[in-house]
Amino acid sequence: MSKLTSNDYLMLAGSFHGMHAITAQLSPIPPARPPPLSTANPATTLQTFPVHATGIEVLESSHFRIQCFQTQTGVKFLLFTEPQQPNVDTMIKKIYELYADYVMKNPFYTVEMPIRCEKFDRGLDGFVKVRG
Amino acid sequence: MVLYSFYIFDRHTECIYSRRWTPARPTSSSSKSAARPQSGASIASNNGDVVAAVRKGMSHSDDEKLVFGLVFSLRNLVTKLGGADDTFLSYRTGEYKLHYYETPTRMKFVMLTDTKVINLRQYLHQIWANLYVEYVVKNPLAPVEHPGGIGVANELFERGLEAFITAVLPV
């Protein structure tokens, strides 16, 4: 992976947001509804809750793979891996847990600001090193 | 395997061939469909479980432009991140998967399928080598460029594509 300036990363991130939205819009089929709960009455409001198409989840190129995970609140996690890396899905969920624990529960962190939490950095480093 | 659509774009960013197997949306009154030799035929066995898409007010040609813009930006993103020798292969969402193949002459082949398909890059390459080159490029009556898709959707190419899809593509 080539090293880019932070301005380039901002530009790529911005265009990725747009592309993510377009991929959701291009979906040729309506999104699958989650299976209804067996105990719930099928006529309940759960069924009429709108389901949105997801955008890019995995992008593959010949040199790397991007796994994208979007939370319910619209935060996107991008994980760049080798093309052969297994279990990226669970890894990114684990990183989401680290984010929830060390960033969102940090009282000094203001939301939607760059993350500067030492504990999150250390947790992420430790998590990745164990896998690597 | 379920196929949703297939597009060919030339190096002038124009969609010279497009084909879709999902039912047309009710509002898609494409005014260009008369000018462009498109095939409205559909493989009935493929779209049995596919319902009409939810988007409204988007015509077929809008889709083509969106797809082109998207693969163009994704290709640029990939080359910027991975270096000049890196190529964009495919992406997957929760609903579908897009496969991409680009020839050295910057022609782009794009196919939308369901999510469980392996990468179709080599099959797209075969479509280019065995069908497009044979039936379109080597056709003496076809123009060199294909403005508006003239000369691409000829009978041999259509039939070859149909046979390729049913016979060669992995089930």
UniProtKB/TrEMBL annotation, chain A:
Keywords: Endoplasmic reticulum, ER-Golgi transport, Golgi apparatus, Transport. It is found in: Endoplasmic reticulum; Golgi apparatus, cis-Golgi network; Golgi apparatus. CDD domains: TRAPPC4_synbindin. Gene3D superfamilies: 3.30.450.70. One of its GO terms (cellular component) is endoplasmic reticulum. It comes from the Eukaryota. GO terms for biological process: endoplasmic reticulum to Golgi vesicle-mediated transport. Part of the multisubunit transport protein particle (TRAPP) complex. Belongs to the TRAPP small subunits family. TRAPPC4 subfamily. This is Trafficking protein particle complex subunit. It comes from Clathrospora elynae.
Automatic annotation (TrEMBL), chain B:
It comes from the Eukaryota. Residues 23-43 are annotated as: Disordered. It is found in: Endoplasmic reticulum; Golgi apparatus, cis-Golgi network. Pfam families: Sybindin. Residues 23-39 have a biased composition (Low complexity). Its main location: endoplasmic reticulum. InterPro entries: Longin-like_dom_sf, TRAPPC. GO terms for biological process: endoplasmic reticulum to Golgi vesicle-mediated transport. Part of the multisubunit transport protein particle (TRAPP) complex. Belongs to the TRAPP small subunits family. BET5 subfamily. This is Trafficking protein particle complex subunit.
